[in-house]
Amino acid sequence: PPPRARVSGELRSEQGVIEIFSSAIRLYRQHSQVMLPLAALVVPFSVGMEYITDGIPSVFGTPLQFASLSLINALSAGGIIHVVDRSTLGEVVTLGDTLHAVAQRSGRLITTQALALFMKILTILIFPYFLVRWWFTTQAVMLDDARGWGALTTSSDVVVGRWWRAAFVVFVVVRRVIHK
Fold it and tell me: Across residues 117-141, what is the average pLDDT?
């Protein structure tokens, strides 16, 4: 069966924003020994990038910070997606297995994230519709083993017929992250 068929019905069913956040919190609690180190990867990296770009004019430093954080977030999100995928299959998830899965796909995660980032920036200037369509590329790499343009296509397929709902979820998540 295609990799997508492995994901449990709970994660593939239509859910409201409350159910999505409730499921995320439950999964973080169940797998905190793996999830917290993955999420913690972002903090030292972002502090390091702040230090490195401190003397660089903001016209160069800010895009550099944004691009590098996007890449480290792709690796961290890839690990979290691996944990969710494996746990819904009833498998025991370890940090070592998760890091190994991410390391195996790190090249694809980084290149796909860079491609998606470029396309997202381009679409902000051209047409916001594609921003939502291509939002789920990291999930496509981790769950469907997609790469490059295939990940963009898979992400688009997930959104087809549910663009407004996906746009709302993306908006809520981005707003929540920005306004912590």
Answer: 81
Q: 91: alpha, beta or left, given left = phi > 0 and alpha = psi -120 to 50? A: beta
Rounded (5°) CA angle 71-73-78: 100
- For residues 75 and 77, what is the distance between their CA atoms, to the nearest angstrom? 6
Are the beta carbons of 139 and 146 closer than 8 angstroms?
Answer: no
Burial of 134 (0-12, 13-18, 19+ CB in 10 A): buried
Angle between helices 137-144 and 148-159 (to 10 degrees): 110
pTM of the model: 0.60
The dihedrals phi and psi of 128, each to the nearest 5 degrees, come to: -60, -20
> Sorting pLDDT into bands at 50, 70 and 90, what band is 177?
confident
Joined tokens for residue 164: 């407004």
Tens-digit pLDDT profile for residues 19-31: 877 877 888 888 8
pLDDT digits (tens, 9 = 90+) for 35-77: 888 777 767 776 776 777 666 666 555 677 777 777 787 888 8
Q: What is d(CA 133, CA 122) in angstroms, rounded to the nearest whole number?
A: 13
Whether the CB-CB separation of 38 and 76 falls below 8 Å is answered with yes
